[in-house]
Specification:
- The chain has 9 helices and 6 strands; from the N terminus they run H-E-H-H-E-H-E-H-E-H-H-E-E-H-H.
- Helix 4 packs parallel to helix 5 and helix 6 crosses helix 7.
- With 253 residues, it is α/β, with parallel strands linked by helices.
- It starts with 6 loop residues before the first helix and ends with a helix.
- A 6-stranded parallel sheet has the order 3-4-2-1-5-6, sandwiched between helices.
- The relative contact order is 0.20.
- It has one domain: Decaprenyl diphosphate synthase-like (Undecaprenyl pyrophosphate synthetase, 3-Layer(aba) Sandwich), CATH 3.40.1180.10.
- It is globular and about 55 Å long.
- Helix 5 links the parallel strand 3 and strand 4.
- It binds 3-methylbut-3-enyl trihydrogen diphosphate (IPE) (2 copies) and magnesium ion.
- One 3-methylbut-3-enyl trihydrogen diphosphate (IPE) binds next to strand 2.
Amino acid sequence: MADNTQSSQTERRVPRHVVIIMDGNGRWAKKRLMPRVAGHRAGVDSVRRTVQHCAKLGVEALTLFAFSSENWRRPEKEVGLLMELFMTALKKETRKLKENGVRLRVIGDRSRFSEKLRKQMDEAEAYTADSQGLNLVIAANYGGRWDIAQAAQQVASLVEQGKLTASDVTEDVLAQHMCMADLPEPDLLIRTSGEQRISNFLLWQCAYSEFYFTDTMWPDFDEAALDAAFEYYATRERRFGRTGEQLEQVQSA
Ligand code: IPE
Ligand code: IPE
Ligand code: MG
């Protein structure tokens, strides 16, 4: 994972990598006496808006939490509808993503998805692979603990093959096997709907992210809401363990 600790990062106004826990679709629908799935549908519009706005503002990577490894615990019907929505969105939006220079990737354990959905994911990734603009990452059946475990498995396999010894297993080696190792670490984590928890999202990658919580429900999240999050981010002093005085010295040098 790229080093985010350079002083230039403290001066950046627009985060390089934004990650979002898109929460509140169900409550948004309930308030309107609509079924939960109506909230998820409205949530897709927010995704489209957010992707476009991030691309326009020059964000390098946007990671969206679409389905957690714990969301299988929801009623079967809701899970099924979410899978359908996912499939439709991939089919409908991929061409436009490519036209807008967006490169798509999906992170998470795909083995539990249907073969059809897995194929659609592969195709969307391949189709947008050459795009040079925004990196859009969809976290689907993703869990932060799963991510750490899959990285550990890969590293253990290298040890088994004699390519590494136990003492070679450092933070850096593990980091290289985590999802999104090639992207900058998340600068800003946004969670909508008023909840203030991480819900097993990017546990490893968010070690030094700034956290922004808003009461806005995900279907209501629009360009102005994203601008507000970025304004908050711009006011943060990112210290990465150093003192505020040290950062002032670097900035005035
Ligand atoms: C987020 O909205 C979408 C997913 C988790 C798939 P929710 O469905 O969690 O909405 P609330 O939290 O019930 O309002
Ligand atoms: C987290 O939201 C997962 C996604 C946004 C996809 P949840 O609504 O599932 O989280 P909890 O269960 O309230 O923590
Ligand atoms: Mg929720």
